[in-house]
Amino acid sequence: MTGGAGGIGRAIVAALTGDGHRVASGDIVEEAAGDAALAVRLDVTDGGSVNDAVSRVEQELGGIDILVNTAGWDEFHLFLQTEEEFWDRIIDLNYKGCLRVCRRVVPGMVERGYGRVVNISSDAARVGSSQEAIYAGAKAAQVAFGKTLAREVARRGVTVNSVCPGPTETPLLEGMLGAGEASAKMVEALRRAVPMRRLGQPEDVAAAVAFLASDRAGYVTGQTLSVSGGLTMA
Fold first, then answer.
1. Burial (CB count <10 Å: 0-12, 13-18, 19+), residue 192
2. Are 67 and 98 in contact (CB under 8 A)?
3. pLDDT (tens digit, 9 = 90+) per residue, 86-100?
4. Looking at the whole model, is its pTM more than 0.90?
5. 3-state DSSP: the chain helix, strand, coil percent, rounded to 5?
């Protein structure tokens, strides 16, 4: 999986490990891999890094049957205050990073006749999110790509689904919000907006991923699952 060192990523590593999988965590922070059987350095914006990381996983753990694309990043900015350099960074990491890893891993799944791909998108992709225009667009592209890939590989035993977290308590969210009274007020406003009256936890997202990665979800493909405590409803 990619992004295994982050808050949601580490929870997914733990969930998949708990289900008996040998998990390889690819991240630019190689040493912080949680319960992973193998940690590899992976920069999803670099095709060479993707190839090297996947090759090492295949050599040490064998063919990859489950791929979870978790790597992502964002900052809060109004669209009219952004420049193309920022757009490129967001798109390269959140969308093209997913493309690079899928292009390297999915052919092996197709060849073996089995695979589970789960892309971690965002509810911003489904409903939009103020100050996240580029991120929302990149994550929406990721969802559309996943649906199309799901159609193309369905007959080869490979499923592709997306999980869309709502506001989730992670180091990334904390970094985006910053500290201080204004940040605390924003977090409280988010909590009040969620029908369950709490922000998501990484484990909430991990549970959805574990299901979609399992044989129990063998007839589920091309789907988009929101994990938002009811903040957004289809």
1. exposed
2. no
3. 999 999 999 999 999
4. yes
5. 50, 15, 35
Average pLDDT along the chain: 92
CA nearest 28: which of 73, 59, 65? 73
Residue 156: left if φ>0, alpha if ψ -120 to 50, beta else—which one?
A: alpha
Instruction: Look at residue 184 in the predicted model and tell me its pLDDT.
Output: 72
Q: Which of 202, 126, 208, 209 is nearest to 167 (CA)?
A: 202
Q: Which tens digits make up the pLDDT trace of 147-201? A: 999 999 999 999 999 999 998 887 766 666 666 676 777 778 788 889 988 888 9
Q: Is 219 a catalytic residue?
A: no
Catalytic residue among 95, 114, 135, 219: 135
Q: Domain ranges for the chain, please list them.
A: 64-227
Identify the architecture of domain 64-227 in CATH. Answer: 3-Layer(aba) Sandwich (3.40)
At 162, which amino acid appears? Answer: S
